[in-house]
Amino acid sequence: MAKYEHIFFDLDHTLWDFERNSSEVLCDLYFEYSFDVNGLFSLNDFLTTFQRINYTLWDKYNKKLIDKCELRETRFNIVLKKLGMKDEEIPLEIGERYLELCPQKPHVMPFAFDILNYLKDKYKLHIITNGFEDVQFIKLQSARLFDYFDIIMTSDRAGCQKPDAKIFNEALSSTSASPDSSVMIGDNPDTDIAGAISAKIDAVHYNPSALNSPHRATYEIACLSELRSIL
User: Fold this and answer.
1) Do 31 and 90 have their domain in common?
2) Are strands 6-9 and 124-129 parallel, antiparallel or unpaired?
3) Which of 13, 29, 86, 103 is found 20 to 30 A from 213 (Cα to Cα)?
4) Tens of pLDDT along 116-145?
């Protein structure tokens, strides 16, 4: 069993249940803006189209093809136009409304609290996230996760995002940790795992959907509870 002192977690999709939290907010917005009345698209179409577009935009952001403002400002325009709405029909504030409501949702991934309680007295726990600082701290507070972590390194704070080794090195420096004494746990092979590898940090790929990955993690798990056999 490897000996670590510092554990770095990704936040969205690893600890904070983005899909569930986001879907709940989208359901609320669907009825708040009376999309059910106009009959252009179903709730399911709204959810699946948002999921697809949001994934594409975040992938572009992680690859530095778009910036934070473009992601936030264009996301719902693209989604609603795809669903048949005209420019003048799109509520101007829906993007801000989503950003206001979504971070307040409290749902976490299965066994998140169980494993954090198991780890908290054995290791120093930290976060490395590409999410934006103004919403990530709200998520951590809303989900009662904040107090588990010593350092929360956001892409805003580091001035770069995963998989850039700089954000990992910034996190190591902030925690006085060495690569050899650290391990990164995350769901995204292209950001969490590739980034950890580039920073010479061991990596645990949290992969509940058993997706193929081009990056070879030190460990792979399907459930957070499996960390007990590693740490």
Assistant:
1) yes
2) parallel
3) 103
4) 999 999 999 999 999 889 899 999 999 999
Partners of 184 in beta bridges: 8, 203
Please check the confidence at residue 103 and state whether its pLDDT lies above 60.
yes
Work out the pLDDT band at 50, boundaries 50, 70, 90: very high
Residues 64 and 120 both lie in one domain? no
151 with 222, same domain: the answer is yes
* Upper half-sphere CA count for residue 88 (Cβ side, 13 Å): 0
Compute the mean pLDDT over every residue in the chain, rounded to the nearest whole number: 95
Q: Tally the C-alpha atoms within 13 A of residue 95's C-alpha that lie toward its C-beta.
A: 16
Stated pTM of the model: 0.93
**Nearest Cα to Cα of residue 219 among 172, 209, 231, 211:** 231
Final residue belonging to a domain, choices 72, 104, 136: 104
* Mean pLDDT of the region 95-102: 96
How do residues 156-166 score in pLDDT, each as one tens digit?
999 999 999 99
User: Which domain-ending residue is among 104, 130, 164?
Assistant: 104
* Contact in structure between 202 and 1 (CB atoms under 8 Å): no
Q: Count up the domains in the chain and report the number.
A: 2
Classify residue 1: in a domain, yes or no. Answer: no
